[in-house]
Design goal:
Elements: H1 2-13, H2 23-54, E1 57-58, E2 66-67, H3 71-76, H4 80-110, H5 117-129, H6 132-143, H7 148-155, H8 173-198, H9 202-233
Antiparallel strand pairs: 1-2
Helix pairs in contact: 4-8, 5-8
């Protein structure tokens, strides 16, 4: 009986929301979401689905497509020329990991107050604004035999005759292109990381610093107690 009365009292104490819903706000939210979602579906997901369906056909510029099933996928993973092209993508995958790690390191430094921080942000982001054709010409002369990169290496003590041809040697030219890609897109990733870090509430940093101080002080206290005990035992 007492339990039933308490449950009824608790249920009665919960206030009911008699405020009517604002359907205009909901309509505005739906309208603003509908336009970008429609564009995303029409220009991204529908073409992607069409390309997936086309992959099961053998198609030519003229004539009707012929259904081949998974034969195209079998050829991709068995033909040596397609496998070599897939191996080339591994270079850029490794370069992307290096780019993200380096961008995270630089963004962590620049997200705090450092001297000339705005200058370095602009300097890192500037290569992203350069046209791709201009970047190609820049690194063409940068990697040319006896030009900028070889000159810098000679200043560091390397012999020009022992340096490779950075764009002609097939064992290293892909890494040269990966370096150019990292140079161009590093600034964009740095700015994205900085924006994400700046959006973090400052109270979280203060809480983390207090936690670190508390843990360090407790460890010092425990070590002092341990040293006292050992001295007393001796």
């Amino acid at each position: 009986m007492t339990t039933t009365t308490m449950d009824a009292t608790a249920y009665a104490a919960v206030p009911e929301n008699h405020k009517p819903r604002d359907w205009r706000k909901a309509l505005i939210i739906v309208a603003f979401c509908a336009i970008p979602l429609t564009l995303l579906i029409v220009f991204t997901y529908l073409p992607f689905g069409s390309m997936v369906s086309y992959s099961f056909y053998k198609m030519k510029y003229i004539g009707t497509p012929r259904w081949v099933g998974f034969d195209n996928y079998v050829q991709v993973f068995t033909r040596p020329d397609t496998l070599s092209s897939l191996k080339l993508s591994l270079y850029y995958a490794v370069g992307a990991l290096i780019q993200v790690a380096l961008a995270l390191y630089l963004a962590t430094i620049l997200s705090f107050k450092v001297k000339a921080g705005n200058f370095f942000k602009g300097a890192f982001f500037f290569p992203y604004l350069i046209n791709g054709i201009a970047v190609g010409f820049i690194f063409k002369f940068f990697y040319t035999r006896g030009y900028v990169f070889d000159t810098v290496l000679q200043w560091c003590g390397f012999d020009l005759n022992h340096l490779p041809y950075w764009l002609m040697d097939q064992s290293i030219n892909n890494w040269s292109l990966v370096g150019a890609s990292i140079w161009r897109y590093l600034g964009q990733t740095v700015i994205l990381f900085i924006g994400a870090m700046m959006s973090i509430d400052g109270s979280l940093y203060e809480a983390a610093s207090l936690t670190a101080r508390t843990s360090s002080s407790s460890s010092v206290t425990s070590s002092c107690r341990a040293s006292r005990r050992s001295s007393c035992s001796t």
